[in-house]
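Supplementary Note 3. Input sequence used for the single-chain structure prediction.
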Amino acid sequence: MLDRFKEFWAGTVLHPVVRLFIRLGISPDAVTLVGTLGVAAGALVFFPQGELLIGVLFITAFVFSDLIDGRMARETGRVSKFGAFWDSTLDRIGDGAIFGGLALYFAGTGEDQGDSYLYLCVTLWCLVMGSVTSYARARAESLGMDAKGGIAERADRLVSILVMTGLSAIFDLPILMYVTLWALAVASTYTVVFRVLKVRRQALAADAGTAGSTGQPEA
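The predicted structure, written as C-alpha cells, is reproduced below.
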C-alpha cells in the first residue's frame, strides 16, 4: 500500500540527496549498507534502554536510505541482480533489528511483568511472521510462481510500528504500540496463510497439467 509513495519521496523530496551522493561517487550498495547499520544501531541501542522516541527518530533518519539507493541505481544505470539481492537481504536485517530491539525492550521493562512477557511474545511473533512473509514470496518466485498479496507488506509493517512507537512515547500511551503489535501479528499471519494457499493452488494446477501432459494414451 505504501510502496506507491516511494517514487514521490525519492524523486522529489530526497532528490537533492540522491544527486549529491551520485556526484560524490557513493555507490547505491554502500548507501544500503550504511542505512541498514544505522537502523540496526538505533533499534538495538535505544529501544532496549527504553529510549523509544530517540530510537524511532534515529531509525527514521536511516530508513530513507531504502528510498535513496534504488533511485541512485536507476539514475546511474547501476541496477543489478546483486543490488536487488543485497537490498532484500539487508532489509531482513533491518526489520529483524527493529522488532528485536522492541523485544529486548519488553524483556527488560516493566512494572507489570505479565504484560511485558506477553508483548515480548507478540513482538517475536511479528518478527518471525514478517520474515516468513518475505521468504514465502521470494521462494515462490524462485519456483516460477506468484505469491504477492496479503495485507502486511514490508512498508506497511515498518511505517506503522515506527509511527505508533513514536506516538506512544510522545503521549505516554503504550496502548498505541500494543494495538499496533497485535494488528501486525494478525495481519502478518493472514498474509503468510494467504500466500501459502495462493502458491498451493498454483502448484496443484501445475502438477495437474504436468500429469496430464505425460499421461499414456488409452489402449
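The chain has one domain: 2-209. The longest helix spans residues 174-213.
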